[in-house]
């Protein structure tokens, strides 16, 4: 297969998937090396950036995904009639706690927030932003929660390493 055919094949796979595809999966399907997948996807993304095209390839959640360029958001949102799926302040607080402290139990979340977190945790589980990742070796063996690939995808993160340092989010003495 020539690089020209591989470009089209990769675009087709990313389009058909609709979700981030791991480089290993693309390499396995196309019978090429993972390094070749990285090179090809970077070349395709560069080509899409140079041309006035509506799509781009982004690296997210450990894989590659075909996405609409941000400049076309207002037009695409009209077509999609995007519903308001915003998270409440309580859900965002809880999600931040899970993201920065994972693995974390419901009791630990409630200890930080100072309120019951059952409903918020259920919402985050339903939206696939968090998941049960195990049980803590403690009395009652409480469930441990962590973030998902959907969380990474939703927030445009390649990995949890892309989260800002907690210290950078805290107010300084002059801001207090």
From TrEMBL:
Keywords of the record: Cell cycle, Cell division, Chromosome partition, Cytoplasm
InterPro entries recorded: ScpB_csome_segregation, WH-like_DNA-bd_sf, WH_DNA-bd_sf
Name of one Pfam family that matches: SMC_ScpB
Entry-linked Gene3D superfamilies: Winged helix-like DNA-binding domain superfamily/Winged helix DNA-binding domain
The keyword Mitochondrion is assigned to this record: no
Spans through the membrane: none
Organism superkingdom: Bacteria
Protein name: Segregation and condensation protein B
Species of origin: Sporomusa silvacetica DSM 10669
């Amino acid at each position: 297969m020539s690089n020209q055919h591989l470009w089209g094949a990769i675009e087709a796979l990313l389009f058909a998937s609709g979700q981030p595809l791991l480089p290993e999966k693309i390499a396995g399907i196309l019978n090429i090396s993972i390094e070749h997948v990285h090179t090809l996807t970077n070349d395709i993304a560069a080509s899409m950036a140079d041309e006035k095209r509506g799509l781009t390839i982004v690296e997210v959640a450990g894989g590659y995904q075909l996405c609409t360029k941000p400049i076309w958001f207002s037009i695409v949102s009209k077509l999609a009639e995007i519903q308001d799926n915003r998270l409440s302040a309580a859900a965002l607080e809880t999600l931040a706690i899970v993201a920065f402290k994972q693995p974390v139990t419901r009791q630990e979340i409630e200890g930080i927030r100072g309120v019951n977190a059952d409903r918020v945790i259920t919402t985050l589980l339903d939206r696939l932003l968090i998941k049960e990742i195990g049980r803590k070796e403690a009395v009652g063996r409480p469930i441990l929660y962590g973030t998902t690939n959907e969380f990474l995808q939703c927030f445009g993160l390649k990995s949890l390493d892309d989260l800002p340092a907690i210290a950078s989010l805290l107010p300084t003495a002059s801001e207090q």
